[in-house]
Specification:
By secondary structure, the protein is an alpha+beta fold. It has 6 helices and 12 strands. The chain has 2 domains: 78 residues, no CATH class; 162 residues, Gcn5-related N-acetyltransferase (GNAT) (Aminopeptidase, 3-Layer(aba) Sandwich), CATH 3.40.630.
Length: 245
């Protein structure tokens, strides 16, 4: 058993060990299109304070609604947690170009809002990303975004009155957790995913927030691999965060 597999056996060492009894392994289809079945080590939890939530994030856990989970897929370790240290981020030429060409985009920060405007945009995004699928915007909000575990807000991007994209973010004084981002499929030429990460990093840097968690990086995956372009970043490998320049 590798060090990384051992790390996946437990909840973060700084938390009450009694929490471990709430976790179970759930088997499901891989959300990233891999052939093998995915195994989620997960538990539905009540309110976590900022320190506890930060411990889970630092240990490689993610949030889905009120459920905290990490991946324990047999024979697969492709899902690698990735985070940024905002003060160390150095944009490359393409990222600087994206930032410059989106100077007409206005940024709004507000509480998480299950508005008709947000739902319509999310449904268009899901219908484009999962054509022919049954993904519904309202179920994403009620089952995935809305939570009582941690403080959650949204960042909205607008071009005039038009909604370009929405980022769902958990937040605390020492960390941001990027939960999800959806955008207008017709505005893909703006590289909105890159714009969103740069904006969140800018907010963190301005507010002296230590970490920006970006979820999982999957080498070669078309929807996940772009995250490694943000450098330097840190990957959780063998239970240790390692900087990649």
């Amino acid at each position: 058993m590798t060090g990384r597999e051992e790390a996946r056996q437990d909840i973060p060492p700084g938390l009450d060990r009694d929490l471990e009894r709430y976790f179970v392994n759930a088997v499901a289809e891989c959300p990233y299109g891999m052939e093998q079945r995915a195994v989620y080590h997960q538990a539905v939890l009540g309110r976590l304070d900022d320190t506890a939530m930060g411990e889970f994030l630092a240990y490689g856990y993610r949030r889905n609604g009120n459920c905290m989970y990490n991946m324990r897929c047999p024979g697969c370790s492709l899902c690698v947690p990735i985070r940024l240290r905002p003060e160390r981020f150095c944009p490359n030429r393409n990222q600087r170009r994206v930032w410059k060409k989106n100077q007409d985009v206005a940024v709004e920060i507000s509480p998480l809002t299950m508005s008709r405007e947000n739902l319509d945009l999310l449904q268009r995004f899901l219908s484009t990303r999962f054509p022919g699928g049954s993904s519904r915007a309202d179920s994403y909000y009620t089952g995935f975004f809305i939570t009582s575990i941690s403080r959650c807000f949204e960042v909205r991007y607008r071009i005039g009155e038009q909604l370009l994209g929405v980022a769902v973010v958990d937040a605390a004084p020492s960390w941001f957790n990027a939960v999800y981002f959806f955008f207008d499929p017709e505005q893909g030429w703006r590289s909105p995913g890159t714009l969103n990460i740069m904006t969140l990093n800018h907010i963190c840097n301005t507010q002296k927030i230590d970490y920006l968690y970006l979820g999982y990086w999957i080498d070669g995956h078309p929807g996940m691999d772009y995250k490694r372009a943000f450098r330097p970043h840190e990957l959780l490998i063998d239970g240790v965060w390692q900087e990649q320049n």
